Amino acid sequence: MAYSELEMPERADHLWRYTPWHRIHPNGELSDVPEAQGAVLELRSLDGSTEPAGVTLEVATEEDIQRLCLSGKEDVSTQFIQAMTQGNIVVLRVARKAKPSQPVLLNIECTGEVCALHLLLDVGELAEVELITRLSGDADWTGFLRQGIFGNASHVNDVVINHIGEGRLLRTDGIHLGRDAQVRGGTVGSGGASRCKADLRYIMEKEGASLKVNGSILTLDGMHNDHHVEILHLAPETYSRLDWHSACSGKSRTIGTGMLRIEAGAKGADAGQLFHNLLLSKYAEADSIPELEVSENDVVGCGHGTANGPVDDDQMFYLSTRGFNETEARDVLVAAFLNATLTEMGSTVLHQHLLKTLTQDLAVEL
Amino acid sequence: MADQMILRIKNLHVSIEDTEILRGLDLEIKAGETHALMGRNGSGKSTLANVLMGHPAYEITDGTIEFLGEDLTEMEPWERARAGLFLSFQYPQAVPGLQVGNFLRKSVQAIRGENAPGARDFRAELNAAMEELDVDKQFLGRYVNDGFSGGEKKRFEILQLLLSKPTLSVLDETDSGLDIDALQTVSKGINAAATDETGCLIITHYQRILDHVKPSHVHIMIDGKFVKTGGADLAIQVEEKGYEWLNPDTN
User: Fold this and answer.
1) Which of A8, A16, A127, A346 could make an S-S bridge to A157, C-beta 3.0–4.6 Å?
2) What is the ipTM of this complex?
3) CB contacts, 8 Å: B103 with chain A
4) In this structure, which CATH number among 3.40.50.300, 3.40.50.2000, 3.40.50.2300, 3.30.2040.10 belongs to the domain B5-95+167-189+196-246?
């Protein structure tokens, strides 16, 4: 259904409770679909030494669109970005059995008043790839839609870094996992957009798929950062874990909502989600709402939890007895907290890249 | 610099949440001395260790603590560490996300300040200390105390002791939870850190570690007071007879 035909979401909707649509729409005029500037894309291997073998960036064909645009047919943000980018869709393709020796880096430079990108992900069967997508630039408003398929038995570590200036970011993912696909999905933001609304959906529709979703988010000053992660278990013997770390400072607000759905027939599904929030100032606010919908009795497990709190006093004392003054100890603990989920996002090479980005942003050695 | 006074505690009274734990302690530790502190659970041993290091939960209601002639009670914990005081924790904190290697390098830089070794010398010191304690190099890539076994935690505390080169080390039940081999290794590390310019206070439940680390003084604490002080043989007596014969309230 096209955006113009959709009913606008109510604030009572789980998805729009904390960031109503009019607060993230480019101009608040909900019927308006502003003209968007396209983003500038660069694809290379992480160290730049080689071409990423078997990985290409192409203009999407009609066949790509039919095959890969599976999600969000009635979702406002998906349809809105599709409306903005119609006819201008890019596909990142990883060939069947491709195995690039280095992580692949996709740089996306977002500029102008309104910038939008619709990216399709087409990861072939048995491919093994680590993909880092880095959003940067000074666009006032960015819309970023990713849809696609991680093929059967593929191994994909997929990390998105929000390094956008001070603009607003609307991000929507709809990723389908094939049979026995092993996927890690990471979201990183140490700083980034002043207002971010992300709706990340993973659909496990084939048996044996495995998914780990990790977040490492730092919000500063008056930032507002809202991530919704929805994991859908449709097939038997599927596995998922969500571990989300957010550190909030200043007067910032971070929101993490999770929706874990296990549909009837997904026998042997094993799912869990955990949100950790570190509150770094008395004015900072963190809301985490994990939700479960389980329609299958024969599951291995399905759990959720959330923990909010300031920097741990016992950890502070331990570091202070090791010579760290209060500021040093606190900085190190915040960085460690964010690094704890970065570690889970991929290989050592990938992790070192993410850690370097984090320590540069925080000006802390770790 | 043997005989130099390192620690002087006078009439120390300490409370936590209005409950008095330490009730008038006097203790002097000079350079070259190793003091053992024994007592039952809840007698106040770990409280003393934490108070020395400046744990904010404890309130000193009376008495003084001097460290190398300076009033220790006015210092923050990190200032105490940089002044040369080290506490090996009974239950060290885990810090997921903080790599052991980087943590050690930063900690040594902070504690030893101008005397901290450069990168090459630090690596050499680190390798030597790890060899002394039979610690695998992969240890450096792990996160601080995260998923460590009880023995690994204690080895890591002693590794920090060796690298920090403190003037006074306070070891809070470092021997608890160690098997025989690990106890010997950890004791070797404690002995390696000791010089005639340093002091050591070992808090323990058991005489066993004192077979490996010879104390010059042994103190028995009951209900927040030292009830008896003696030489190494006092620890053996306690091991054989328990603490009850030393309890002034029942004798």
Assistant:
1) A346
2) 0.96
3) 322, 332
4) 3.40.50.300
